[in-house]
Write a structure and sequence with these properties.
three-stranded mixed β-sheet, 0% helix, 10 strands
Length: 127
């Protein structure tokens, strides 16, 4: 009998989709656009006088902190610019806290790997 069910899903009272048979409503790659109030209306052709409506289901997407470690390779006399911060031989490690458009924070830690500079004269020909 469940195979005859029809599930009409709504978000914020706007129709989203119909699922027939076994209900497997999923949100892949959740984003802030998925926040809202969901409900489902269930009907069955074998029971035409029965309509079931779910309670409201509130979906709130929360921020998760993101931590990333980066290594940048530069020569000793060079510097690396990230935003308003300058990393160089005297300041080789720093961390930066960024907020995206939704207010979620991301922590980026940058390590500089300094390459030694060598000045060599290469002579061609006979000595």
């Amino acid at each position: 009998m469940i195979e005859s069910n029809t599930y009409d899903w709504y978000k914020d009272d706007e129709f989203l989709m119909t699922i027939s048979g076994i209900n497997k409503f999923r949100i892949n790659r959740v984003s802030f656009d998925d926040e809202g109030t969901y409900h489902v209306i269930i009907t069955n052709t074998d029971l035409p006088d029965l309509t079931l409506t779910s309670f409201d289901i509130e979906i709130d997407v929360i921020c998760t902190s993101l931590r990333r470690v980066e290594t940048e390779v530069i020569c000793e006399s060079q510097s690396f610019q990230l935003g308003s911060q300058t990393l160089d031989r005297t300041n080789p490690i720093d961390s930066f806290l960024f907020a995206d458009q939704n207010g979620c924070d991301s922590l980026v830690i940058v390590f500089l790997e300094l390459l030694e500079e060598r000045n060599e004269i290469i002579r061609r020909g006979t000595p």
